[in-house]
Design goal:
Length: about 220
């Protein structure tokens, strides 16, 4: 399992290589800024590995090779959707292996340490969000217990999906989306209408909310 997680992290980080060659694009797509933030984080992690120029070149070449393979596969209209997904999964697995082989043993150990550190940071952030929500919504002890149970059940389901070797990456994504939808529905069975309203309002008031930022007119372009 550790190897799977490590290889996934390696590929995720490698995607950020030479991102400076790609021009910035303004977009209003939901969640796009989260992807950009992750890409920046991956680039910073790669810098910590002190990659050689040869490694950078190999990672970039491998990323381009994978993209080319995916594009050619998408153009193939003589295969079924199931066959296409199977081939895409095979390409991803081969890419992960080749990416991982570019890093040294010390770099892989460093990646593993960074992965653990990020997991700890995510846990701490989730705990703070939970505590803030409890305070903002003034939850009862019964509601706290219900939400804690639902959260634990959700974590178990996520773990089961991640460890299911019979699922492709695409199938895992689809199941994660289904879980996310069911989580929203489960909140309605625990929270009151007033609490749901407060929770929605608090999300809209988050610092750096892109929708809110877009609504603010720029008065003086010269000052930017």
């Amino acid at each position: 399992m550790k190897k799977i997680i490590l290889s996934a992290l390696i590929v995720s980080m490698a995607i950020g290589i030479n991102a400076q060659d790609i021009p910035e694009r303004k977009t209003g797509k939901p969640g796009m800024h989260h992807k950009m933030d992750r890409k920046k984080g991956n680039q910073m992690d790669l810098q910590k590995l002190n990659l050689t120029e040869d490694q950078k070149t190999k990672l970039k070449t491998q990323k381009q090779n994978m993209r080319s393979q995916m594009e050619e596969l998408k153009k193939n209209e003589n295969i079924t959707v199931g066959e296409q997904r199977a081939k895409m999964e095979a390409i991803r697995k081969d890419n992960k292996t080749k990416m991982a082989n570019i890093f040294t043993t010390d770099q892989k150990a460093q990646l593993e340490a960074m992965k653990k550190e990020k997991m700890q940071q995510h846990k701490e952030m989730a705990k703070k969000r939970s505590e803030k929500m409890q305070s903002t919504l003034n939850l009862t002890e019964a509601q706290k217990a219900q939400l804690d149970k639902k959260r634990a059940d959700m974590q178990q389901k996520i773990k089961a999906i991640k460890e299911d070797k019979n699922l492709t990456e695409q199938q895992k994504k689809e199941k994660f989306m289904e879980l996310k939808k069911s989580q929203k529905g489960s909140l309605k069975s625990v929270l009151t209408e007033d609490q749901l309203k407060k929770m929605k309002e608090s999300r809209h008031r988050k610092p750096g909310n892109r929708d809110g930022d877009r609504k603010k007119p720029v008065k003086n372009n010269a000052a930017i």
